[in-house]
Amino acid sequence: MHGVLQEVKNICSTLVHKKLVYNRSDEVGIVLFGTKETCNELAKELGGYKHVTVAHDIKVVDEGTSQALQNLPAGSVPGDFLDAIVVGLDMVIRKFGNTKGKRRLCLITSAQHPLRDPPEGTKEDQVDTIADQMKRHDIKMECIVFREPGVHHDAVMEENDRLLYQFRNRSVVKVVQVDSPTSLLGALKTRNVLPVTVFRGDLEMSSNFKIKVWVYKKTAEEKFPTLKKYSDKAPPSDKFASHEVKVDYEYKSVVEPDKVVPPDQRIKGYLYGPQVVPISSAEWEAVKFKPEKGVKLLGFTDRSSILRHHFMKDVCLFIPEPGNTKATLAVSAIARAMHQMNKVAIVRCVWRQGQGNVTFGVLTPNVSSVNNVQDSFYFNVLPFAEDIREFQFRSFSSLPSSSQPTEEQQEAADNLVKMLDLAPPGREVLKPEFTPNPMLERFYSYLDLKAKQPDANVPALERCLRRITEPDPDVIDQQMPLIQNLGKAFELKENPKKKKARTQDRLAYTAGDQAKPVAEPSMEKDGVLGVLHPPTENIGQIRDLNPVQDFEAMLAKRSSSTWVQKAIEEMQKYTTALLENSREGDNYQKPLECFAALRKACIIEQEPEEFNQFLTKTYERLKGDVANFFQLLSSKNISLISKEEAPDSDVTEEMARSFYLKQEAASQ
After folding, report:
1. Which of these, 108, 104, 299, 139, lies nearest to 206 by C-alpha position?
2. CA 586, CA 583: separation in Å to the nearest integer?
3. Across the strands, what pairs with 301?
4. Are 310 and 258 in contact (CB under 8 A)?
5. DSSP characters for 408-454?
6. Strands 312-320 and 209-217, how do they pair?
7. What residue stretches are annotated with the Ku domain (predicted)?
8. How confident is the model at residue 509, as a pLDDT?
9. How many Å apart are CA 500 and CA 477, to the nearest integer?
10. Dist CA 447 CA 161 (whole Å)
11. Strand spans (E) along 389-545
C-alpha cells in the first residue's frame, strides 16, 4: 500500500482533526503491521506477533497524535492483519477493561499477504475467538480493503477475504472494499453520527392494517462546524475565563426612544400591502394547522411516474420495529411485491405531535441481498405545487437547421460525454458513499495548520482532493484526440449582425502593474481542454473570453492573504480598460457583467470601500465619455454598496439610491 500511504495519512489525520473539534476527550492509538521492527506488549510478554509496532499509545487526541500520523513509515515486510487486530484489541482492553463506552478498531489493509498459522486450531477458529472477545467488550471494527483495479485475486487473497467476511457475519466488523485513492479517503467514517429515529409508530396501510416501523435519516448534509464568538476582554491571568460573548437585545419605542418596551407589550406584525397587520402568539397558534402524528398510505403508483428530479430534502429509511417478527414479515412481503411489480407507495407523514406541517413522499422498496439485513423502504419527500418551478425553454428542434448540430458535431459531443462517463461498465468512479466533501476535508486540514501556525496562508488543494474537484488528468491526456475533434467540429465565427469587436488588440491585465497583450484561447487550438482542465498558470489573469469566470477563479484560489485584494485590483483595471475602449455602447454588456461581479465579490469579501471608491472615481473620470453606460448601471440598480449590504460600508441606503442623481446635480 505504499502508493496510497499519503491517502492513509490524510484519512487518519482528518479523523483526528474532527475529534479535536467535536470530541476533544476521545482517545486514539496507532498500530502498524508489516514493519521491520516489532514493538508491542504481547510480543514482550508472550512472544510472536512479529512485525507489529505500536506507533502511538492510546491517549487523548492532541497535536502529537496528528504528528505521529504524518510520520508513518512505509512497511518493508509482509504484514499479518490478524496479529494487528489482536494487538489493537489487547491495547483497548488493557486501557479500558470492562468500563462502558464506545470503542472501535479501524483496519486499513490490502489483505494480499499470507497469514501465519495459529499455534492451536485453524485461522477460522482464531477469527471466532477474536470475534467473541470483541462482542464481550462491545468493540466494533471497520475494515477497509484497498486493491487497485486489475489486481489478480490469488488463493491468499481469497482466504483473507473469507476470514474478513467471517468477522462481518459475526456482526462485529464492517468490511468495505475500495479500488482508488479517492474512494479510500471516504471509506473511513471520520465522524460517527448516532442513529436517532425521526419517527416511531404505525405505518397505516388501512384502518385495520398497521405495521410498526422506525424511521431514520439515511442522508443529511454535513455542515461546517459552528464558529463561536470569542472575547479577549478577560484578563490574561484569569485561567478560568470562558471568553464567552453574550448578546442581549432591547426593544425601544419610536415615540419614546429612551423607554424599553417589555415583552408583554410587544407583538409581531406582518406586512399586508401597505399596512402592518398585528397578530398575537395566541392567534397565530389558533391559525396553525395541527395534524395528528402518523404515517398513512395514500396509494401505489408506477415507479416511472415519480420523477427523480422532484425528490427534495434528505432521504429517510423505513425499517420494521426491531424484534417485531410480524412487522418484519409484513415490511418484507410488501417491499418484495412492490419490487416485483415495479411500484412505489405514496405516503402522508407527520413525524411528531404538534408538527405544523405535513410531508408527502414516496416509499421505494429496498430489497436486501444479505441474509442478516432486513428489507426496508427508502423515503423521499415530494414537492407540492408551490414548490415546483416550471421554466419553459424553447425546444431545440424548433430552431432552423442552420442552428442545429451536424452529424459530425453530434458525434463529437457524444464521444465527449462517453469519455467523461463516471460509471463505465463494471466500475463506478466517485461513489457518493466513498467520496468525501473536499471543502470539509480542506477546512479541517487548514484548521489544524492554523492552530500550529497562526500566520499560515491557505495551502494549495491537495492532490487527492483535486481528483474529486477536477477531471482526471490521465483521462484527459489519453483522450486528447476526442477533445481536439470537438474543437474542430464547432468552429467559432464572427456574427455579422453585430459590430466588429476588437479581438486582436484587447489587453488582458496580468499580475504586474503594466498591461501586456495576451492571446485569447482559441477553440481550434486548445479544444475544450481549457474548459475541462484549465492550466494553473492562467489563474491570476483576467482574459477577454470569460473575465467574470477568471475573476471568480482568482478569488477562489486564495494562495495568500493578499490574493483577494489582488483579484479586485485586476478586475478594476480590466473593467476600466473595457470602458475606455468602448464607443457608443458597442461593448457595454461585458463591463456591466464585470461591475456586477465586482460588486457582489466586494460584498461577500467585506470590501465595500474598494467598490465604492472605484465606482465614484470611474464615474467622475468617464461620465462624459460613457454617460449611457452609467445610466445602464443605474437601471440595473448597480450603485454604491450600502451599510445594509455590508456592515463595513459608510454609505447609507439613501445615499446609494441617490448616487447617480447627486452626481449629475453636482456636475450641473
Report:
1. 299
2. 6
3. 344
4. no
5. HHHHHHHHHHHHT-SS-TT--SS-GGG---HHHHHHHHHHHHHHH-T
6. antiparallel
7. 258-399
8. 35
9. 36
10. 38
11. 507-508, 516-517
Q: What is the residue-wise DSSP string for 149-190?
A: TT----HHHHHHHHHHHHHHHTTSEEEEEE-SHHHHHHHS-S
Give me the residue label for grid cell 465604492.
612
Is 92's pLDDT higher than 70?
yes
Query: If pLDDT is split at 50, 70 and 90, which confidence band does 497 have?
Result: low
Does the pTM exceed 0.70?
A: no
Q: Which residue in 81, 132, 131 sits closest to 107, CA to CA?
A: 81
Q: How far apart are CA 330 and CA 335, in angstroms?
A: 8
Reference 320, options 218, 215, 213; nearest CA is 213
Q: What dihedral do alpha carbons 45, 49, 52, 54 form, nearest 10°?
A: -30
Is residue 316 within 8 Å of 378, Cβ to Cβ?
Answer: yes
Q: Taking residues 515-532, what's their average pLDDT?
A: 41
Quick one: which H or E segment has residue 45? helix 41-46
Is the per-residue pLDDT at 651 higher than 70?
A: yes
First to last CA, the chain: 76
Mean pLDDT across 15-37: 82
* The C-alpha cell that represents 346 in the structure block: 405514496
- Indicate the DSSP class of residue 264: G
With both helix axes pointing from N to C terminus, report the angle between 81-96 and 123-136 in degrees, rounded to the nearest 10.
Answer: 20
Mean pLDDT of 360-380: 92
Is residue 469 within 8 Å of residue 11, measured between CB atoms? no
Among residues 605, 604, 629, the alpha carbon closest in space to that of 615 is found at: 629
Q: For residues 73 and 80, what is the distance between their CA atoms, to the nearest angstrom?
A: 17
Please answer whether residues 513 and 547 qualify as being in contact, where contact means their C-beta atoms are separated by less than 8 angstroms.
no
Q: pLDDT (tens digit, 9 = 90+) per residue, 98-120?
A: 777 778 899 989 888 889 888 88
Grid cell digits, residue 416: 465527449
Task: Check residue 107 and report its DSSP letter.
Answer: E
Q: Kindly give, in sequence order, each residue whose CB lies less than 8 Å from that of residue 272, ignoring residues fewer than 6 positions away.
A: none
90 phi, psi to nearest 5 deg: -65, -40
Longest Cα–Cα distance in the chain: 102
C-alpha 388: how far from chain center:
24
Q: Nearest to residue 632, comparing CAs of 579, 566, 668, 581?
A: 579
Q: Which of 357, 98, 318 is nearest to 218 (CA)?
A: 318
Three-state SS at 649: coil
Query: Quick one: average pLDDT of 130-136?
Result: 90
Q: What percent of the chain has pLDDT over 90?
A: 23
pLDDT at 503 over 70: no
Facing residues of 347 across strands? Answer: 297, 361
Measuring CA to CA, which residue among 223, 224, 220, 204 is closest to residue 212?
A: 204
pLDDT in the model for residue 540: 63
Mean pLDDT of 72-76: 79
Contacts of 472 by beta carbon, 8 Å cutoff, 6+ apart: 429
Residue 321's pLDDT band, with cuts at 50, 70 and 90, is very high
Percent of the chain with pLDDT over 70: 89
pLDDT at 533: 39
Contacts from 333-339 at CB under 8 Å and sequence distance 24+?
334/205, 334/211, 334/365, 335/365, 335/366, 335/367, 335/375, 335/376, 335/377, 336/365, 336/367, 336/375, 338/300, 338/365, 339/365, 339/367
> 182: which residues sit within 8 A by CB, 6+ positions away?
429, 430, 434, 435, 464, 467, 468
Bridge partners for 213 per DSSP: 201, 320
Select from 326, 337, 343 the least CA-distant residue to 203: 326
> Helix (H) and strand (E) counts for the chain?
23, 16
Q: What cell numbers appear for 580 in the block?
A: 475606455
Q: What is the mean pLDDT of the chain?
A: 83
